[in-house]
Amino acid sequence: MTAFLDNTLSGLALGAVYALVALGFVVIFKASGVLNFAQGSLLLLGGYLVAVLHDDLGFAGALAVAVLATGLLAGAVDRLLLQRGGPDPAAAPVQTIVTIGVDIVLVTELSRRIGGDLLSLGDPWGDAVTEIGPVTVADSRIAAIAVSAVVIGAVFALFRFTPWGLSLRAAAEDTEAAALMGVRLSRVRMLAWCLAGALAALAAVFLAAFPAPGLERTTGQIALKAFPAAILGGMASPAGALAGSLVIGLTEAFVAGYQSDLHVLGEGVGDVAPYAVMIAVLLVRPTGLFGAKGAVRV
Amino acid sequence: MNDRTTAPPPALAVRDVTVRFAGLTALDAVSFTVAPGSVHALIGPNGAGKSTCFNVLSGLCRPAAGRVLLGDTELTGRPPHRIAALGVARTFQNIVTTAGTVADNLMLGRHALSRAGFTASALGLPRARREQREHLARAREIAELVGLGAHFDAPVALLSYGDRKRVELARALCLEPRVLLLDEPVAGMNGAERARTAEVVGTVREQLGLSVVLVEHDMGLVMRLADEVTVLDFGRPIAHGTPDEVRRHPEVLRAYLGTGADEEDAA
Amino acid sequence: MSDPIRRTVRLLPPVLLLVALPFYLDAFWLRIGLFSMAAAIGAVGLGLLCGTAGQLSLGHAFFLAVGAYGYTWFAGDPGLGLPPLLALLLAVLLAGAAGGLFSPVAGRVKGIYLGVATLALVFLGHHVLLTADSVTGGFNGRSVPPLTVGSFAFDLEPQLVVLGVPFGAEERLWYLGLALFALTWWTARGLLRGRPGRALTALRDSETAASVMGVDVARYRSAAFVVSSMYAGLAGAFLALAFRRVVPDYFGLTLSVDYLAMIVIGGLGSVAGATAGAVFVTALPLLMTRYADQLPLVASPGTTDGGVGPTEAARYLYGAAIVVILLFAPDGLHGLVRRLRARLRRRTGPGRPPSAAAPGPAPAPTPSASAVRTKEHTP
Q: Which ranges does the record mark as transmembrane (chain C) (predicted)?
């Protein structure tokens, strides 16, 4: 029972963090039709900035700068590179591959700087734990769940109540009509990218926090696990991405938690379980769990 | 080349076909029969369901109710490529050509009639080469027939609008169809090009003896080519008959001709 | 009928050059050649899938691994210990079968979404390679049995001297690579110019048009995936022969992305382009490592204090190349060469045949000093 609660809590924490990244995927996809393969390197950049700045600025200051800078960089990537030919959604496949190029450059540079080191982000939770009934939870996990819940709530409110959110939804429905109605597509897009970058930077903090040993050059790859989460949710649905993230997080936590019973599957099977889940879902529903038929743009 | 072109085509029967999109009824119990070897026009205002009807006939859209029969063969529920293999070819309202030359596009039309698979093509087996040669020769004939002979090896992207529409027509003909579905074949063409396309449609119908289903806003062309006309309005058939009968039909005058007979495409 | 003859004549000089090279180049250059050939084989396969059929795959490394490990297991011990040539063939088929197993996904998930789905193959595959150590040797991998045909081995022994030049493993494998690459080139061209190629192109440009013209969309999508997996399998098996050892970490996501870079840099949808891109992406880091001390801004390999190492410099270059090419010259090197050639032809007037196209305009930045070095032998 304790193990079950334990796994559930770590699954929720993990899912909450994936949800931050997956929401980024979905926002970008809705706004531009692009699958952003550079999300992982943006995440790594965010974490790296916090790691190098927290000594001077303190954790909160470093985090603010990192979130802002990563968001701005993501926006710049979209505005200066991807949108060169205008915000044309027909160019989305090509732009998707451009993000892979961007990712190569960013990851190479950050890996070179990080090298084999484990960077501490100087977060306030450290390795503190809290006892909740029979289970012991790392404070960082509680923080991950709480912060993600607040941020995700805010993002949903952005979608629903701001002019930008309206424009974004209009653009995702029908780009041409939205443009005719005066939606400034290029700005809507760029802001979506900024938001996704900021979310990735925030996620980095929790991915590098205890019980993880710190920020490594491979931390960015963890962001790729948010892809299955977003795909599970049908790629275009924020609520779907949230649900998908929780599914992925819980799967990973439970598979890792019961690894000793699953030892035939090998060590670290928890890390690859999300991908197995994704394949299984795609086999049954090629457009994802929550993807309506035809929700995927051609 | 293909023996099924010599036999008269079977009748194409549409029986009570109903299509709904998210609560909207796009086609409401539509029935008509295309007599073997005839030209059957499908007219109506924009949004009347003509293109949806074509999508049902070519298998791109599955009706909620009703059936489509080609002779004794049920078409309903079959995937598009099977319907193509049965000899139903179509063109699109907005041009849909693929990369490459006119020849490449027409050879795509020969896909269902040829056999060379991955292995035979990869290894360049003699039968694959022979097949390719034969079909290329036939594709060239068809290009000549529609007046694209001079452009046979030209990239499609470099052709004029009218020529690209003709590429679509020729590609559909390359299927050696028994039934040819033409979705606004002269939309956006100038007078000379229209005349030329009308002539081609007349010629292929005579030479190849196929049935033609025609969706077109150009009433002159419809009146000239069609043997029979079905008028759709809001997904419902409101009139059937010869062009002359339909022209005088009060319902048609009210629903269709009244709202502007010569409105062009943009459906 | 003079067309095939003219084509043959035009192909002759580059072919002769490639055949003669092992007599003049030392092992370093030959090894670059071997890796380039392997990469070219794999890139042609990925080009078929991405460039022609319009399906993104990030799972290419997985199928390379299947080919590499498949060959090793079929030919080696532990394993079936089959005759190596048969093992090579089976490895290719195994990769194809693996691609086929994925076809329920590959046939229904399209375009860039397939890219995400295939991520799973790389991570799951890597996990299996680490876990199934009785077959794969686990983290340390296993050594690869050399290819033998009859009593002839593509290895150091038995010793062989041809025209006064000792033929070690690299020289022998060079010819094997050439043969496999020629096979790849020829079959891929046949596919592209034949009925399957047209169907796949149509599928990429308009799924609707393709299906109403009689193309079975799902079947062709999976078939493209299977064929591309088979080329990857062949590339993987040859790579294993060239490396003489297979390790799981080589077949990671980075390798998949490398292959994607190759076909994008070379220009999507052409065999020659994929080859050129393969040579570029493969040779660049190796050359930069070799000449690091002569290059500005690049630190020698091994120095860890913050400088930009040659491998990293190469990655910057081709990461940037992907961005620049897709945004400024979408048809890649292949298109660039074609445009240059067209301009050249216009300038030199008609009647002069365009310069013979080598299989890919190998853009290796050969420093002139080393090009004339006498051949030295490092087995």
A: 31-49, 56-74, 86-105, 112-132, 173-192, 223-247, 259-287, 316-337
b or e along B41-67 (b: 16 or more beta carbons within 10 Å of the residue's beta carbon)?
Answer: bbbbbeebbbbbbbbbbbbbbebeebe
The CATH T-level fold of domain C8-364 is: ABC transporter involved in vitamin B12 uptake, BtuC (1.10.3470)
B123 interaction partners in chain C (CB closer than 8 Å): 187, 190
Whether residue B183 is found in the same domain as residue B258? yes
Q: What is the mean pLDDT of chain C?
A: 81
Choose the most confident range, by mean pLDDT, from A90-104, A178-192, C85-99, C116-130: C85-99
Residue type for position A150: V
What CATH number did the domain enclosing B234 receive? 3.40.50.300
Amino acid at C346: R
Amino acid, single-letter form, for residue B86: L
pLDDT at A298: 26
The answer to whether C316 contacts A269, with C-beta atoms less than 8 Å apart, is no
**Counted domains in chain B:** 2
**Residue ranges per domain, chain A?**
2-219
Per-residue pLDDT, A192: 92
Nearest to C114 by CA among C50, C64, C63: C50
Q: Is B25 helix (H, G, I), strand (E, B) or coil?
A: strand
The nearest CA of chain B is from the CA of C295 a distance in Å of: 43
How far apart CA C80 and CA C74 sit, in angstroms, is 5
3 state SS of C277:
helix
Report yes or no: A110 and A49 within 8 Å, Cβ to Cβ.
no
Task: Assess if residue B195 is contained within a domain.
Answer: no
Residues B156 and B77 in one domain: no
- E runs forming strands in B121-187: 179-183
Is C195 within 8 Å of B120 (Cβ atoms)?
no
Distance CA C343, CA C338 (A): 9
pLDDT of C367 higher than 80: no
* Residue C213 to residue B112, Cβ atoms within 8 A: yes
Chain C contacts of B114, Cβ < 8 Å? 195
The one-letter amino acid at A103: D
Nearest to B257 by CA among B233, B225, B227: B233
Rounded distance, CA C205 to CA A93, Å?
Answer: 13
Alpha-carbon distance of A54 to B237, in angstroms, equals 73
- Indicate the helix (H) or strand (E) that contains B24: strand B24-34
Residues C110 and B80: their CA atoms lie apart, in Å, by 18
d(CA A262, nearest CA chain C) in Å: 12
CB C34 within 8 A of CB C242: yes
Q: Which domain holds residue B254?
A: 9-87+177-189+209-267
Residues from chain B that touch C195, judged by Cβ atoms under 8 A, are 107, 111, 114-117, 121, 128, 131-132
Nearest CA in chain B to C222: B118
Helices (H) and strands (E) in chain C, counts: 16, 6
User: CA of B253, closest CA in chain C: separation in Å?
Assistant: 34
Name which of A61, A58, A47 is nearest A215 in CA terms: A47
* Contacts across the A-C interface (CB distance below 8 Å): 124
In this structure, the answer to whether residues B105 and B234 fall within a common structural domain is no
Cβ pairs B/C, distance under 8 A: 106
Percent of chain B with pLDDT over 70: 93
Q: Which of C209, C225, C216, C188 is nearest to C50 (CA)?
A: C225
Interface confidence, given as ipTM, is 0.85
Exposed, middle or buried by CB within 10 Å (0-12, 13-18, 19+), for C164? exposed
Nearest to B216 by CA among B171, B186, B172: B186
Residue of B nearest to C225 (CA): B118
Q: Are A22 and A244 in contact (CB under 8 A)?
A: yes
Distance set, CA A294 to CA A179, B260, C219 (Å): 22, 34, 20
**Does the residue B201 lie in any domain?**
no
B216 within some domain: yes
Question: Does residue B41 belong to any structural domain of this protein?
Answer: yes
